[in-house]
Amino acid sequence: MSDPVPLIRVCIVEDHEATRESLVKLLRHSPEIVCLGAYENVEDAEREIPLRLPDVVVMDINLGGGSGIDCVAKLKRACPQMEFLMLTTYDANNLIFDALSSGASGYLLKRAAPDELLSAIKEVRCGGSPMSMQIARKVVAHFHQIQKPKSDLEVLTPREQEILGLLAKGLAYKQIADQLAISRSTVHGHLNAIYRKLHVQSGVEAVVKFFGK
């Protein structure tokens, strides 16, 4: 008998009570996720989350007592292994890039379907960078307006640039592997090479550094 798949431990930071309760209910109905706690403000989140050490934090932006983006930055410094998924109504470019630069690995809009949110949590836990389609389009459009640094273009191979471009569009590792007709392990190998060449630790950092903010 194979070993059971470890549960993904999740905390929620959301100031709207009905939304917070809905998210807790959704997570509790997922057999692969356990909800460790839900917080309505930055103060509670910054105090409790480092004690509970979830795998993933689902974070709103506009919170009582402060900004979710600032909260992500502070928690990421304290707990580098923790992953953050923004879940918000805001799609302004500056908020998107500030959130990603602060340590968030994914960015979903609240209109996302429940299944999309659950999939995004799992993808973030596995090292992916899920984004709502609208957010991914904004990110790609922003990158297209920026001339790529020659030094980075010379550092990365054409295949590595191709994989990083697909990652920037919000594709999961499996989707990248399927689109390029390669294995997931090959995708991971290319990404590890990208991280090493660009001196970064995650896909989001690689995307931001390569394409520019």
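[next item in queue]
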Amino acid sequence: MQSEILLQSLMEQTRQIINQVEKLREYDLDALTWRPNLNSWNILECLEHLNLYGDFYLPQMERKINSATAQAEPEFKSGFLGNYFAKSMLPKEKTNKMKTFKDKDPINAKLDKGVIDRCVEQQIKLLELLSQSRKVSLEKVKLETSISSLIKLKLGDTFLFFVNHNVRHLKQIEKLQNEMKNA
């Protein structure tokens, strides 16, 4: 895939995510913390989960982009593992449940509307990083994963995984909003 087309697509998806998250400011705290059952995340917990991943990936992306010496290529080819991780994050018709790492699981955390602001700020930072990455290799720049520092993904695959993960949890929020209306 052409690197520029990939980055443009990810930037557009991120802008849509920002718009969706900003609309959540209209909800009161009761709606943002409503859950269909004791084991489900509420809206704020979904966003905080994204924030926790942002805390891990965004600073690393920034460091790697700023220190990269490898120039951008016109084409990006996803790696085997990166492609697998990115695709596994895409929402499916019937949601494929995934176990969340304990340090990324915000269930029952005391959260407020500041979670929304932090999420929007992180998405804006992601837009900046996507733009800055036009000058560096999406293939040769590698990042550690949250699974293990031994598993590294290409910058392009990390962006794909990260944005798909955001999309996945925004779909989860949409589902929660529909369940809330019907409760």
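[queue empty]
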